[in-house]
């Protein structure tokens, strides 16, 4: 092998992806378990689909670009079929339900968790791989199913420790939005492309100033990198009408009933728009009668950028502020969303298959929980059994085995260093306890157990090295038979 440094591979992380350590993984595991328990309380059951689907199964319901499958990672297999990494968890669900239509119960209530992939330009807070946790009901056209998703979203946020008043579940309806599109001359198939551009522009209201949204509704927008996004090419009057409809000037003000009255006026004579208003009124009534009206509201700014939504759409938004590293206030905004997509399963079957679902952005929500001080603590490492005599490896393995048989994570040191280096290793492993058995302890049938957490605390109070050595902080010597009992007592302190 060449020693030339120029010939060596460079260790580098791919752009838009991230490594995750034990603390972050522990926080994710804890959060996901809470979400799972909440979803199951509402009667949803687990389903897992592959990371990879046939590209045509993902369809045209993808990113903010003209080409149907732009934005996904795709490749051909050995029989020249195009495959893609899943863009979200909804399209694979639609494929699964269509493929198993005759044997799944209807409505079919399921939840899924896992990574999704976006072949898009990475940036701050914008990754090419991230985690989602979805719940969907397939086979029910009732707005009760939509209202239920919103109420379950509220329950989930509170179960995770986000207090009432620090979040809002916002609801809109794509039929109302389509009614507004008709009012500005973008109804029918001929206006579909520009209509989608308008919807995606509105969906960015939480990211860009209103002036930038106006550019996306007009000729287009040039971003800081020099990339140009083509706009919807609306005239000034239509741009003004769309922005006013979103409630930008009085965002978040007014009751759901007031918003519904404004919606009815905005859609004019559009029957589709009026149908959307009626559905929202029904959701508002369900929410009110169920005791969720203080957490769920009708809000015109909710759009959801994907084309497959056909009715009610909703977002979970965090409303509290935290400070960044520079002391500037920031808001996390949306941490989840979803809506009704009655046409997605029907693509495979050629018959109606109503569906609605909600997706949580796990990574974003996890960051918000950490900002609230509700993230999981860094997990403790295993008990480390030090190897004082390499000829007695079997004895040390036996000590570690006795701990593991009692359900206590344990390992023996596998390196070749002395005692001080082994103690440093245990510290880096975040080990709460170390087990030491030299030849004298072995002859006496004893073992020394060291409470590393207590030892650290005591070391802050004892400045004299001789006094520290004499104190043997946090350390006890016990018969081998009491090893498990002693370690348990030490672990129980923390």
From TrEMBL:
Chief location: cytoplasm
Record bears the keyword Aminoacyl-tRNA synthetase: yes
Aminoacyl-transfer RNA synthetases class-II family profile domain span: 31-379
Pfam families: HGTP_anticodon, tRNA-synt_His
Highest taxon, organism lineage: Bacteria
SUPFAM superfamilies from the UniProt entry: Class II aaRS ABD-related, Class II aaRS and biotin synthetases
Intracellular or extracellular location(s): Cytoplasm
Broad class of enzyme this protein falls into: ligase
GO molecular function: histidine-tRNA ligase activity
This protein's UniProt keywords: Aminoacyl-tRNA synthetase, ATP-binding, Cytoplasm, Ligase, Nucleotide-binding, Protein biosynthesis
Record field: catalytic activity: tRNA(His) + L-histidine + ATP = L-histidyl-tRNA(His) + AMP + diphosphate + H(+)
Enzyme Commission code(s) on record: 6.1.1.21
Subunit structure: Homodimer.
Xref: PANTHER family: HISTIDINE--TRNA LIGASE (PTHR11476:SF7), HISTIDYL-TRNA SYNTHETASE (PTHR11476)
Family: Belongs to the class-II aminoacyl-tRNA synthetase family.
Name of the featured protein: Histidine--tRNA ligase
Lineage, highest ranks first: Bacteria, Pseudomonadati, Pseudomonadota, Alphaproteobacteria, Hyphomicrobiales
């Amino acid at each position: 092998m060449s020693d030339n440094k120029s010939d060596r591979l460079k260790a580098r992380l791919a752009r838009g992806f991230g490594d995750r350590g034990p603390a972050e993984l522990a926080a994710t595991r804890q959060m996901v378990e809470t979400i799972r328990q909440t979803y199951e309380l509402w009667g949803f059951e687990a389903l897992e689909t592959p990371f990879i689907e046939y590209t045509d199964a993902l369809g045209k319901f993808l990113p903010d670009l003209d080409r149907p499958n732009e934005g996904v990672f795709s490749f051909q297999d050995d029989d020249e079929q195009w495959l893609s990494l899943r863009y979200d968890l909804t399209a694979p669900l639609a494929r699964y339900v269509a493929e198993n239509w005759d044997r799944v119960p209807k409505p079919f209530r399921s939840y899924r968790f896992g990574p999704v992939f976006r072949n898009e330009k990475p940036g701050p807070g914008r990754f090419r791989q991230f985690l989602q946790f979805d719940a969907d009901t397939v086979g029910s056209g009732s707005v009760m199913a939509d209202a239920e998703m919103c109420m379950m979203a509220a329950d989930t946020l509170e179960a995770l420790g986000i207090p009432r008043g620090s979040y809002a579940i916002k609801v809109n309806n794509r039929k109302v939005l389509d009614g507004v599109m008709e009012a500005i001359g973008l109804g029918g198939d001929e206006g579909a492309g520009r209509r989608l551009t308008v919807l995606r522009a509105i969906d960015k209201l939480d990211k860009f100033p209103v002036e930038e949204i106006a550019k996306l509704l007009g000729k287009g927008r040039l971003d800081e990198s020099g990339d140009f996004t083509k706009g919807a090419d609306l005239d000034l009057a239509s741009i003004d009408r769309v922005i006013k409809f979103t409630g930008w000037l009085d965002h978040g003000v007014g009751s759901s009933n007031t918003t519904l009255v404004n919606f009815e006026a905005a859609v004019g004579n559009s029957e589709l728009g009026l149908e959307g208003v009626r559905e929202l009124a029904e959701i508002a009534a369900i929410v009110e009668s169920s005791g969720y009206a203080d957490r769920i509201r009708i809000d015109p700014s909710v759009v959801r950028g994907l084309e497959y939504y056909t009715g009610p759409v909703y977002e979970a938004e965090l409303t509290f502020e935290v400070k960044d590293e520079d002391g500037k206030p920031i808001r996390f905004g949306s941490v989840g969303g979803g809506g009704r997509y009655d046409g997605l399963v029907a693509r495979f079957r050629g018959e109606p298959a109503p569906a609605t679902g909600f997706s949580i952005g796990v990574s974003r929500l996890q960051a918000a929980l950490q900002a609230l001080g509700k993230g999981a603590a860094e997990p403790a490492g295993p008990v480390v059994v030090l190897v004082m005599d390499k000829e007695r490896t079997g004895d040390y393995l036996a000590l570690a085995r006795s701990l593991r048989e009692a359900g206590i994570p344990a390992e023996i040191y596998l390196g070749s260093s002395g005692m001080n280096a082994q103690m440093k290793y245990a510290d880096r492993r975040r080990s709460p306890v170390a087990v030491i058995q030299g030849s004298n302890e072995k002859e006496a049938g004893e073992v020394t157990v060291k409470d590393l957490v207590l030892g650290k605390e005591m070391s802050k109070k004892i400045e004299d090295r001789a006094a520290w050595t004499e104190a043997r902080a946090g350390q006890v010597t016990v018969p081998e038979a009491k090893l498990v009992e002693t370690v348990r007592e030490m672990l129980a302190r923390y």
